[in-house]
Amino acid sequence: MDVLVNRPKTQRGEETLMKICVAAEQVFFEKGYYGASIHDITRLASVASGTFYIYFDGKYNLYKFLLLQYSHEIRKHISKSIRGCKNRREAERMGLKSWLEYIREHKHMYNIIWESLYIDKQLFVDYYANFSKYYVEQLDAAKAKGELIDVDSEVLSYVLMGVSNFIGLNWVLFKDADNFDYVVDEVMKVFDRNIFAPET
To answer: Which segments constitute the HTH tetR-type domain (predicted)?
Structure first.
């Protein structure tokens, strides 16, 4: 990640970097990657245009930096939420609910992440492949404990990511729901019948 950004060495520099990133999220969300300009970003961030280049070589590096930040922040948030879960079923339920709650506060992420498919397909592929790799490790551990049916962990990881993404689209972006207990419980009914071993 550091090759994408020139990391500041002072607190003030970190604050300026954060202002640029926050502004970029808003501009990319409103105008899209191709409609956004560095001038738009620096103007919203209230920094000089030249200041941008202290941190980033260009708009692409900033965009890729944001994607990597999202991946890290989402995994960190979900990992924290499932800490202490007794089994994979509890982890999946808590993970889905925490994802929905997180994306409700960061709706712009959908637009920015999915637009990467049209900016640089490999960015999009890598984004979900990295999530899958992280997921597979957890699923393999759960299978070793007999908590899941015998199914390819990579395939299952994409099934679970697909469920989370489209449940999020419908109940967060489209319906703007503020309580997710019902939909999470309904999803778990599907999971109970199809992915969890009977003894769990």
So the answer is: 14-74
The structural domains of the chain, ordered by start, are 1-57 (1.10.10.60), 66-194 (1.10.357.10)
Give the type of residue at 55.
Y
Which of 1-5, 31-35, 48-52, 176-180 is the least confident region?
A: 1-5
Overall average pLDDT of the 17-32 stretch? 96
- Cβ neighbours of residue 87 closer than 8 Å, sequence gap 6 or more: 142, 145, 147, 200
Distance CA 169, CA 163 (A): 10
What is the residue-averaged pLDDT of the chain? Answer: 95
Which residues neighbour 82 within 8 Å (Cβ) at sequence distance 6 or greater? 90, 91, 94, 95, 98
Amino acid at 43: R
